Amino acid sequence: MRTHPSPSPLLAALLLWTLSALAAAAPLSGTWTGKAYDDKLQLDFRFAEHGNMGLGVPRSAFQGLNTAEGADTSFQLVREAGTLKFQGRFSGGEGAGHYQFEPSDAWLQEMAKLGYKEIAPKEQLQLALFDMGPARVKALAGLGYTNIPHDDLLEVAIFQVTPEHILALKAAGYDKLTLEELVATRIHGVTPDFIREVKGLGFANPTLDQLLAMRIHGVTPKFVREIREAGYPNVTLEQLVDMRIHSIDANYVRSLAGNKDKGGK
């Protein structure tokens, strides 16, 4: 019988934030903190009593970003849904300041044409942060994911269920996945690289549920090799998952073998 994994702490936290944000109008301005890396800016937004939310954005997505030491900075993040304008200062690679969101009326009109006619300002801000708009909605529709329910749209955006991710999984042999399954692959890190690693260990056709279980319970390629070297070369994926659930590692397996040898003397 097919089982569905329990939501991870990350999913629970994000969904809790989403639900609280939907329950009360989030402001279209607030404060931000950030950490500058070579390739991205990790941003954390403060939504007053609604808590924090973080995401990483490529540096190339910003206009006017200056992370020089001690310099006042003013930069923008232009999305289909609107523009986020930032004011602040960086020191030691870390920044802080205020932001303001300017929603796009044209985006609202285009989304309405696609069936999303009741997008509140707070939702528009959220969708802007995760770069969800008509272009991606149309691209997803082209892959067969049409008429995505309004309530699911933000989840698809938050977990970056992009056309590129869907096509990469298809190329790896996992086609026609549901939106729920696609979100799960993003939450738990079932990537094409991970799939190739698992297949490289001799598991020719692992199911999606098996791959998810491996990621949820920490069955890494290293763990598989250790268990095999400890005396179980033909261990199955189900057995490996059970071992992780019950905290059985290679040292424990070897200790059992040692005790058996002693008992036989």
Provide a descriptive summary of the structure in words:
The chain is α+β, with helices and mostly antiparallel strands and 265 residues long. It has a domain at 27-158. 46% of the residues lie in helices and 20% in strands. It has a seven-stranded antiparallel β-sheet. A hairpin with a 2-residue loop joins β5 (72-79) and β6. α7 (179-188) packs parallel to α9. The longest helix has 15 residues, at 9-23. The protein is globular and about 65 Å long. The two termini are 44 Å apart. Mean pLDDT is 86; it is low at 1-26.
Major pleated sheet: 7 strands, antiparallel
Q: Mean of the pLDDT scores?
A: 86
* Proportion of residues in helical segments: 40-55%
* Count of DSSP strands: 7
Main sheet strand line-up:
3-2-1-7-6-5-4
Number of helices: 12
What is the approximate shape? globular
Estimate what percentage of residues fall within beta strands. 15-25%
Can you tell me the residue ranges where pLDDT is under 50 for at least 5 consecutive residues? 1-26
H/E element order: HEEEEEEEHHHHHHHHHHH
Query: Mind telling me the C-alpha Rg?
Result: 23 Å
Distance from first to last alpha carbon: 44 Å
Q: How would you classify the helix and strand content by structural class? A: alpha+beta
